[in-house]
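Bench notes, afternoon.
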Amino acid sequence: MAHVMHKLIYEVLAAAAKATSKADKIKILKEYETPALKDVLQATYDDIVVFTLPGGTPPYTPNQEGSIPSSLLKQHMKFKFFVKGLAGDNLKVMKRERMFIDMLEAVHPQDAEVLIKMINKESLGKGITKKLVQEAYPGLIVK
């Protein structure tokens, strides 16, 4: 497999959303496959993933374009603290919410928007549906 430059999650989703055919959308999702992308897609579209965060948009200060200290390629490992039944179940509510806000403030502003859509189980882009994700990554979505 040829090495592909990593794109930020929002860039992959935007490219897939712009693609006109289902086959092209799937091709883009597969071409830029990363554990972070798959985690975001699974967390958004799999009904078995239940977040322990309040819905809506939390109060946070979006990162400034020039000073992105982190990316979802690194930060996605913290998702386990926000999903019911995983590592974050024992965290105090305020600590869990602070961790999420810190994550939103550490990543690219458009990746932060992706995270907010993810926890609210909202579509990640035109034509990026549960069915499409199931076709791109068979077995990723349980329910």
